[in-house]
Amino acid sequence: MMRFTKFAALSLSLALATGTVAEAKTPLRDVPAIDNQMLNVALALEISEKCAEIDARRVKGLNYLWSLKRKANSLGYSDDEIDTYRKSDVEKARIRAKGEAYVKSKGLNPKSAADLCKLGKSEIASKSVIGSLLRAK
């Protein structure tokens, strides 16, 4: 037993020294540099889909999403972890709720196309991240 304990302790020490012990990562939903930006993308998409007066800047949006992926990779997240976060129905619902709360915080109705148009125009005018992903027709 003593021999096994020494071996286990030595193995753990070597693993720690070489960084081979898997570290628990913060869920991507709790990484503001990623999650807040995904909210911006979601809001821009919702506005462009519901407001006939505003289009999404698709190429810019795709480039923005690729930059978020690179950022997540640089933080140590694998492509599989990113895809799991991105495709999760739970995360999509959570982001939708955050987006609706954001629209409401502006005194607007998230179910109203006219209010989403108003928000989109405001975001474009203020040159926010959301606005940079949109263009008026």
Give descriptors for this structure.
7 helices, 137 residues, DUF5333 domain-containing protein, globular, single chain, mainly alpha, disordered N terminus
Give the beta-strand count: 2
Q: Strands of the largest sheet, in order across it?
A: 1-2
The total count of helices amounts to 7
Main structural class = mainly alpha
Low-pLDDT windows of residues: 1-22
Q: Work out the strand percent.
A: under 5%
> What is the N-to-C order of secondary-structure elements (H for helix, E for strand)?
HHEHHHHHE
Average pLDDT metric: 87
Cα distance spanning the termini: 75 Å
Structural domains: how many: 1
Summarize the main sheet. 2 strands, antiparallel
- Shape designation: globular
Bin the helical content: over 70%
Rg, Cα atoms, Å: 21 Å
Give a topology summary.
Elements: H1 2-18, H2 32-50, E1 54-56, H3 58-74, H4 79-87, H5 89-105, H6 113-125, H7 129-132, E2 134-136
Antiparallel strand pairs: 1-2
Helix pairs in contact: 2-3, 2-5, 2-6
Structural write-up:
This protein has about 140 residues and is mostly helical. It has one domain (about 25-135). Helix content is about 70%, strand content about 5%. The chain contains 7 helices and 2 strands; from the N terminus they run ααβαααααβ. Strands 1-2 form a two-stranded antiparallel ribbon. The chain is globular, with a radius of gyration of 21 Å.
